[in-house]
Structures are given as C-alpha cells and as structure tokens.
TrEMBL record:
Short name of one Pfam family: FMN_red
Name of the featured protein: NADPH-dependent oxidoreductase
GO molecular function: FMN binding; oxidoreductase activity
Start and end residues of each NADPH-dependent FMN reductase-like domain: 1-134
Domain of life from the UniProt record: Bacteria
Upper classification of the organism: Bacteria, Pseudomonadati, Bacteroidota, Sphingobacteriia, Sphingobacteriales
Length: 179
C-alpha cells in the first residue's frame, strides 16, 4: 500500500508532523511518502499569477495523491482555520484539479497545544474536504499536545492513545473491507 502523508504546517518544529510520524509507525511495511510543505513553497495564489501557469510543485502535490492508495494528514490550526502554507498549496492544487484528494481514503488528524485539539480546523476540513474528493474514513484530534505527547514515546495520554489506536485499526479495517 502506498501512503501519502503530510502535516498541514510549514513549521520546522511542527507538532502535527510529529503526530503524523507517530501514526505512520502503525503502517510500517508500507511504501510511505511523507512530505514537508516547505518543499512545496509557492507564490501566494492569485488569479493574476494563475494566468502565468501553475507552479511545478502544485502538480507534484497532486501527483503524490494520484500515486497513493491512502492519505494520512494532520492539519495545523492557525486562527481557527488552515495554516497559510497548507491553504496556499491547496488553493493552487484545487485550480488544477478541483477533486484535489482524488477520492482517496483519508485519515484526518489535528493537534494543538490547546484543549480543543485543533477542533476548529477539523470541523472545517471535515465539512469541505469531501467536496474536494476526500474520502475521510477516520478523524482524530489530540488536545494539549505538550501534555499528551512525548517526542520519544508518542501519545502518552492513555485514553487518547487507546482512541487513536482504535481509529487506526478501524481505518485499516475499512481499507480491507471497503463495502
């Protein structure tokens, strides 16, 4: 199985990327393509710039999705919405293919330092991603990242870890039994 994974953040210390890396350990043995949005930097989207063509990395982002079997991502929440880095990548990609996520099964996550765990961006993405071709199979939010996650051990809050592991297993089951 080919997995395309990313954090919706361009922070060099992204807590969402740490969460993605932790979850990917449950998918060892699969072909994993974990990208960094910093490698997909593009000019800020505008219809004026679009007239000059699309950045090659926007096409590459879509190619990564085309070539995968599943998507695992964790979105950063900035001011109750997507990070600018992710939104810009998404905007460029959606102008090339409105079905950005190409009907691929997705495990959608968020985390934040606060107690809501990125709940605002999760609500937004859960509502809008399916309109852009996301087949969201499972969602997971980890609140209070710095209290509930350890760089060496991953999710350390037992209740959250149990919930996450259950969702990972449910996701795998849905992939094995799509109907």
């Amino acid at each position: 199985m080919k997995i395309f994974a990313f954090a919706g953040s361009n922070s060099s210390t992204s807590i969402n990327k740490q969460l993605v890396k932790f979850v990917l350990k449950s998918f060892e043995g699969n072909e994993i393509n974990l990208i960094d949005l910093n490698d997909y930097a593009m000019p800020v989207f505008s219809v004026d710039l679009e007239k000059n063509g699309f950045p090659a990395v926007a096409h590459l982002f879509l190619k990564n999705i085309e070539d995968c079997d599943i998507i695992i991502c964790s979105l950063a929440e900035n001011n109750r919405s997507y990070s600018v880095a992710f939104k810009n990548t998404f905007d460029w990609a959606s102008r090339i293919n409105v079905k950005v996520f190409q009907n691929k099964p997705m495990f959608l996550m968020t985390t934040s330092p606060g107690g809501f765990g990125g709940g605002n961006v999760m609500a937004e993405a859960s509502k809008f991603f399916p309109q852009f071709g996301a087949d969201i199979k499972e969602v997971f939010s980890l609140p209070k990242f710095y209290e509930n996650f350890d760089v060496h051990n991953g999710v350390i809050n037992q209740e959250s870890l149990t919930e996450l592991n259950t969702k990972i297993e449910n996701f795998k089951t849905q992939l094995a039994n799509p109907y």
